[in-house]
Amino acid sequence: MESQDTAPKQRVIPRACHNCRARKDTLSYFARFEAKLADLQLEVDGLKERLQNRDSADNTVPSPHCSNSSNPVVRQHDVFGDHTQEEGDSSFGRQALNAIQVAELTSSESSHSTAVAQQLANLRDMAREHEASGVNRDDYISAPVPATDNLKMRLPPSTFVLAILRVLRERKGVQPILYYFHGVYDRLQIEKLCRRIYFPLDSVSAADVTLLNGMLSVVLRELDNIEDSEITSEEITRYQRICESQFQTGLEVYEVMAMPTRENVMILVIGMAHAQIRAKLPLQWSLTSTAARHCLALGYHREHRVSRLPSAEASSVRRLFWHIYIADKNLSSRLGRTSIIQDLDVDTGLNAVSDEPGRTPWDQAFASFVEFARIQGKIYDSLYSPAAKKQQPEHRVAVAIDLESQLSTWHANWTKIDFSEAFDYESFAATFGPADIIYYSSLTLIHRGTASSGSAQDISPVCYEAAHQGLQAHLNYYPRLSSSADHVLSNYAFWIFYYTSFTPFVVTFLHCIAHSDHGDLTLLQEVLSSLEQVGSALDYAEKQLFLCKALFRIAEAFLNSHTTTQNNHTVAGSTATFCIPLQNPFSDEWAGLDRFLEGTEDWDMTTIDPASFLLDDAM
Question: 282 to each of 136, 292, 518, how far by Cα in Å?
């Protein structure tokens, strides 16, 4: 038997020659290149489509009667609904509107005065127009909100930022204003954030970029008041506008409002200041409330939570929390709403006062205004809240006496602060000089809160005396402003129109009507004239100036009418009774003024913002 060859057969795989392989590689390269071109073309087409859709949406005004889409069309500047902004009895707007419904102004004797009727008709029309206007989106939003995935964040060049940091190192006087009003703890906090963003070791978050833009916008606003800065005015203006625009873009994304992080809280604090400057009180209230809730969620109101943080971080958190606390309590008193942060739930301590002579007065002032804010919150809670209104008159008087004692103690301690060595002495004096005015304004608000009805007798002598002293304090301080710079006038207008309810003006108006007091009328006129000089060019003062003008004109027309009547008739002594309703002044009670409207001309309303008589966004 022949042996068989069992060796495995080798398979022969044909190989392409060199030219074939080169041709195949070339074809593969072109195939990949064509695929990439196709992908790029798809992306370009997608971008074109999105741009066309956006341009179409921006340039098209949808018809209100027909639409092919099942989704509702949202307009950027429309109202949110038919709800007005609710304010409590401690707000200046509510007090002023209640004041013009007094019986003296609605009596049959006053109804024969065309001048009085016309001025009342003006306010009546404003109230009704505001009631129908709803809540405007612009009151809450600074700019159109971009989609988060399309967010493009810009920053100034690093060379410009380094120049800013050099100015901050050299000019210590700039720092206290920045830290006091905007919750930034110190210069190192800004430098650390700059290093993290301009020289990153890890990825940079949108919150970090937004926060830095906010800080830089604040710093540039302060540097704009320095004449000999190494940074030119043109550079400051240009980059301040860019930083602020980018900050607003980052502020109005969902994550900042929804996620309680320290960075988001700091963003909200800077946003509060921006809203305040623009006289957007609803936006300021929204941002402050959100920041306060973030603080509660993070435990910043509890000492055991803050004390576990590293020393520098704990100091920053304390400053941040108490800054928000001041704003929260201040808005509570001004708007007549309860605060978010309740004193019974807070035990976080303040930072120790700096031993650096230049900064000591600033830290003492900050601690003092924390105490003042606490009293402001108590004024609403104890005298103006719905629960307080149910208390017996004796209890309310006792509460007012206690609050007056606390406020007087605060004022006495305030006057003991020695700020002769403070960094930037002029700014300190200009910033806190009006302390006497806000003291008397708050004191007037306390005594006005004891009234259980709207009669004239409920304006007690101590209430009128506090109001009179408040207006006189303003007139005494006003001459210091005659040659002041614009930013000093702006600071003063902030205290007068924005920080407290200007209750002394309303109380003096009521006293003037009740007693036909020409001395009160003269005082109101002098105060109004000075207020026009201070706040005529400021957005947040304009609305309240209109309100003060209206009250003065009503008082002037009433006294002129009353004098004419006295010259024509022998008038026996009479008792003036005021009926200031405690309910919403935009109710049907306004119908009682209809009889004044016969035979009167319509007042030109084009120059008046109706929101000024309800939104207390300039006090």
Answer: 10, 15, 38
Give, for 250, the enclosing helix (H) or strand (E): helix 233-251
Least confident span in 449-463, 503-517, 521-535: 449-463
DSSP for 407-426, please give it.
HHHHHHHHTT---TT-SSHH
* Residues 395, 399: Cα–Cα separation, whole Å: 6
Return d(Cα 523, Cα 231) in angstroms, integer.
Answer: 45
Number of Cβ atoms within 10 Å of the Cβ of 352? 10
Cβ atoms of residues 213 and 252 within 8 Å: no
CA–CA dist 272, 266 (Å, integer)? 10
pLDDT recorded at residue 62? 39
Query: Longest Cα pair distance anywhere in the chain, in angstroms?
Result: 160
For residue 497, give the nearest of 571, 559, 438, 582 by alpha carbon: 438
Cβ-Cβ contacts under 8 Å for 183 (sequence gap 6 or more): 266, 269, 270, 319, 320, 323, 324
- Contact by Cβ (8 Å): 328, 340: yes
pLDDT at residue 61 tops 70: no
Q: How far apart are the first and last CA of the chain?
A: 120
Backbone angles phi, psi at 169, to 5 degrees: -65, -40
